[in-house]
Amino acid sequence: MTFTKIACVADVTPKAQAALKAIAKHHDITEITKRRMSAQVVVVLGGDGFMLQTLHKYMKMRLPFYGINCGSVGFLMNEYGLDDLLARINRSRATTLYPLHMYARRSNGKISQELAFNEVSLFRHGRQASKIRVSIDHVVRLKELICDGILVATPAGSTAYNFSAGGPIIPLGANVISLTPLVPFRPRRWRGALLSHNASVNFTILEHHKRPVNAVADFTEIQDVTDVIISEQRKSGVNLLFDPEHNLEERIIKEQFTY
């Protein structure tokens, strides 16, 4: 399909707002609505954090997203440039990202469900280390992990916090997710695991009254959880558009050879 109707969303930073004004001078910007003649693609001006916020906000519209980096890292974005914008968008290639679904039960019995395109992370919420039982597909793999926390990362998120925490970088087509501990104390030699993208990961918080734990799905934090179940959500995939010479798969491969 040829994209002719674009919507634009911009972060509050000066660079993103200036880019929005520049685009508006040369293009008719369409609103994001459910109407038949509304936008065909969403142009996102900002950094990776703003892209994640935009994906969460508009993913139900089933529109593709084309990011222009107005932030710092911009791993999910294309390089900054406003010339021939429509031509760039129409030359771009789509990459589908599938989020993780987090089902979290709190100590008061309340249930929260959130999606994460990068990772779901658990963190201790106090001075004492957390104790977490780890089960994969209903099989207990670690009876007691003593740590600051643990995370599950998607391939797209594997280069972010996961990599900083010592987890592996995962190619997009690998069909695996990363399970990575955060400052593990016991067992000392456990460095995490790679799991099938179909796996169901269950974290049970041990001694949760004494050692409280919070869960975070991308940027949404749920406090004082007792059980967290994580699985991939295939029905909620979104398409990100990338310039052919700077696609996400190439970036992930290139990141593994950066020193």
Keywords:
2 domains, 6-stranded antiparallel β-sheet, 5 helices, 259 residues, alpha+beta, Rossmann fold
Notes on the protein architecture:
The longest helix has 13 residues, at 14-26. The strands form 3 sheets. The chain has a 6-stranded antiparallel β-sheet, with no helix packed on it. Strands 12-11-10-7-14-15 form a 6-stranded antiparallel β-sheet, with no helix packed on it. Strands 1-2-3-17-4 form a 5-stranded mixed β-sheet, with helices on both faces. It folds into 2 domains: 6-98 and 237-255, 3-Layer(aba) Sandwich (Rossmann fold), CATH 3.40.50; 100-234, Tumour Suppressor Smad4. The mean pLDDT is 93. The two termini are 39 Å apart. Helix content is 17%, strand content 38%. It contains 5 helices and 17 strands. It is elongated and about 60 Å long.
Topology:
Blueprint: E1 6-10, H1 14-26, E2 41-46, H2 48-58, E3 65-69, H3 85-91, E4 93-97, E5 100-106, E6 111-116, E7 119-124, E8 130-136, E9 139-147, E10 149-153, H4 161-164, E11 176-182, E12 193-196, E13 201-206, E14 213-217, E15 220-222, E16 225-232, E17 238-242, H5 248-255
Parallel strand pairs: 1-2, 2-3, 3-17
Antiparallel strand pairs: 4-17, 5-6, 5-16, 7-10, 7-14, 8-9, 8-13, 10-11, 11-12, 13-16, 14-15
What is the CATH topology assignment of the largest domain? Tumour Suppressor Smad4
Q: What's the gyration radius in Å? A: 20 Å
Number of strands: 17
- Tell me the series of helices and strands, N- to C-terminal: EHEHEHEEEEEEEHEEEEEEEH
Q: Please state the second-level CATH architecture of the largest domain.
A: Sandwich
Basic shape: elongated
Which range does the strand content fall in? 35-45%
CATH class of the largest domain: Mainly Beta
